[in-house]
Amino acid sequence: MRGDRECYPTLKACYDAMSGPEWKSSTGAKVGETWLDWNIKCCDKEWISCKSGLIDEIMFKFIPKLKGTIPPQLGLLTALEEIDVRNCDITGTLPDTLFSGDSGGLTSCRFYLLVLTELGAQLVTA
Description:
CATH class: Alpha Beta
Protein name: Leucine-rich repeat-containing N-terminal plant-type domain-containing protein
CATH topology: Leucine-rich repeat, LRR (right-handed beta-alpha superhelix)
Organism: Emiliania huxleyi (strain CCMP1516)
InterPro entries: LRR_dom_sf
Largest sheet: 5 strands, mixed
Structural class: alpha/beta
Order of helices and strands: HEEEEEEE
Number of domains: 1
Distance between the termini: 22 Å
Strand order of the largest sheet: 1-2-4-6-7
Radius of gyration: 14 Å
Shape: globular
Strand content: 15-25%
Oligomer: single chain
Helix content: 10-25%
């Protein structure tokens, strides 16, 4: 996916699916609203990292009060290499669109998940 305006639908889908209106800092200040602003370049938005002008990493683990599901639109960010959802209240499964060719799909993305087991927490990469 190329261009600043093209990332907006994907980031808005994440914001909506992952309780964006509830994202607040430790002081109670609202955060994450840059994801809804068309006038802010994708690579200048909070918790976003880019290479060559394309989003390559979304640092969900730093978003306060994030919870919900990973939306299928995330698969549209074909340059995405890393998604870190450790310490997040994410439910559900990873959408097929992250791996299918229908929407582009991610070819070399690392997912960092924290899996709770009877033996304690375990870091899983997929």
